[in-house]
Design a protein that fits this description.
Distance between the termini: 21 Å
GO cellular component, one term: plasma membrane
Protein name: MFS transporter
Number of strands: 3
Keywords: Cell membrane, Membrane, Symport, Transmembrane, Transmembrane helix, Transport
Strand order of the largest sheet: 1-2-3
Helix content: over 70%
Structural class: mainly alpha
Organism: Gordonia rubripertincta (Rhodococcus corallinus)
InterPro entries: H+-coupled_symporters, MFS, MFS_dom, MFS_trans_sf
Length: 452
């Protein structure tokens, strides 16, 4: 979103910034999802119970707790990013996520330290979520602010692409370990390895970010002495309708994505009889499908626009989710049906994030962009990501209807389509409320975008 008064960054700088944003969201999604695929091993260790369902539900609540701290993280890091710069803030967030995940991997179990074990697990999960609250929105902001009018949508896809990659890597690591280690060893200490692998991932991303400058957009704000003193107050007073829309859009997309990634593996284990290692391998295929679908979405978003692409993808989710879930259950133990169904749902859910993340940053002017994107995404994460998987499991247990997650995903799709219909399909917001093509001055009438 470079301004006309600011020289466009070189292709090499754009590539490095894109790689840094990509790796950051790989780390974020890996850290969050690796816990999900280890629940079958960690649930009895931290939440021992005679009822397996109680242990799993308790573990899913811990999963959700990480999302509850995201809005606070979004508020804190969003303000920091708009006041002190995107680069510095993103280095802090990546360190925070890596340290929290490694601490979870080193945590003693309930048998060793009693009730302190689940309490510390929740604490580290909250810390992880707090740091993650500023990561994805910050990465999207940082990368998209290197864009021109020809590639804003494509660059905005870098972060959901990294998110999809993380969702593929996490189950792949768990599946590989489950294939070489026995069930007893995985339950004893093998589950710690995937969490500790976050350390080299974090260090790699941190070193890359150390070699970058801040985004052209933030450097322009600093040069023009337009860096806000009170970005949170400015956001709430001047852009609260946009914040509400971004929150709802994020909640809808994340509800779908996390139901697919966090609940479907448990559904396949309980309803289709697959082993945890098998469902982890299937989740890897689903993550790869998400990468492919997201790449395609990134290639067409600048041509189709955010709104049209979102309608197509969320419409497909609404139409296909229930039939695919019922086919998985009806074909009990059929690997091909399970893999294909998981891949289609994962691909559609991952690709839907592309126009959503593009809208996330384009909706706010540069002065409050990080704060608006991070707070809106954090609130949406708490609603959609935090309660989606747990609510799916709870509704299934309470009603006895194994297809409850499908109805949640359909409702989320309809909400997402309703919200995106109220947002501009192209362009980025300026301080005066206009939408212009990235890289162009707000005064160029030919490049103004109709916001209706």
């Amino acid at each position: 979103m470079t301004d006309s008064a600011t020289p466009a960054p070189s292709a090499a700088i754009v590539r490095r910034a894109s790689l840094a944003g990509f790796l950051g969201t790989v780390v974020e999604s890996y850290d969050f999802f690796v816990y999900t695929y280890l629940i079958v091993y960690t649930a009895p260790l931290f939440f021992p119970s005679d009822d397996k369902v109680v242990s799993v539900l308790s573990s899913l609540l811990v999963l959700g707790s990480g999302f509850l701290s995201r809005p606070l993280g979004g508020l804190f890091f969003g303000r920091l990013g708009d006041r002190k710069g995107r680069r510095l803030t993103l280095m802090v967030t990546i360190i925070g996520m890596g340290v929290a995940t490694a601490a979870m991997g080193l945590l003693p179990t309930y048998e060793a330290i009693g009730v302190a074990a689940p309490l510390l697990l929740v604490l580290f999960r909250l810390c992880q979520g707090f740091a993650a609250g500023g990561e994805l929105a910050g990465s999207t902001t940082f990368v998209s602010e290197h864009a021109t009018k020809n590639n804003h949508g494509l660059l905005s896809t870098i972060t959901p692409l990294g998110f999809s990659a993380g969702t593929a890597i996490a189950p792949a690591v768990v599946a590989a370990l489950a294939a070489v280690l026995s069930e007893d060893v995985m339950g004893d200490w093998g589950w710690r390895i995937p969490m500790l692998l976050s350390i080299p991932l974090t260090l790699t991303c941190l070193l890359l970010r150390l070699g970058l400058e801040d985004s052209p957009e933030f450097k322009r704000l600093a040069a023009e002495h337009k860096v806000p003193r009170t970005p949170v107050r400015d956001l709430i007073s001047g852009h609260w309708p946009q914040l509400a829309k971004v929150t709802l859009l994020s909640a809808a997309v994340l509800m779908i994505g996390y139901i697919v990634a966090a609940f479907i593996p448990l559904f396949l284990q309980d309803q289709a009889g697959f082993a945890p290692g098998t469902t982890a391998a299937m989740a890897t295929v689903s993550g790869i499908a998400a990468i492919v679908f997201t790449l395609v979405a990134g290639l067409v978003i600048d041509r189709l626009g955010r709104r049209t692409l979102m309608f197509v993808l969320l419409g497909a989710v609404a139409v296909l989710f229930y039939p695919i879930l019922s086919l998985m259950q009806a074909n009990d133990g059929n690997v091909i049906v399970a893999v294909l169904g998981f891949a289609v749902l994962g691909g559609l859910g991952g690709a839907a994030a592309s126009p959503a993340y593009a809208a996330l940053t384009a909706t706010f002017p540069a002065r409050v962009r990080y704060t608006g994107a991070a707070l809106g995404f954090g609130l949406g994460s708490a609603i959609g990501g935090g309660f989606g998987p747990w609510l799916s499991a709870q509704l299934t247990e309470t009603t006895g209807n194994i297809y409850s997650p499908a109805f949640l995903a359909i409702a989320a799709s309809l909400i997402g389509m309703a919200v995106i219909a109220t947002l501009p399909s192209r362009g980025v917001s300026t301080d005066d409320g206009e939408f212009v093509l990235p890289g162009e001055d707000a005064g160029l009438a030919a490049d103004k975008i109709d916001a209706t």
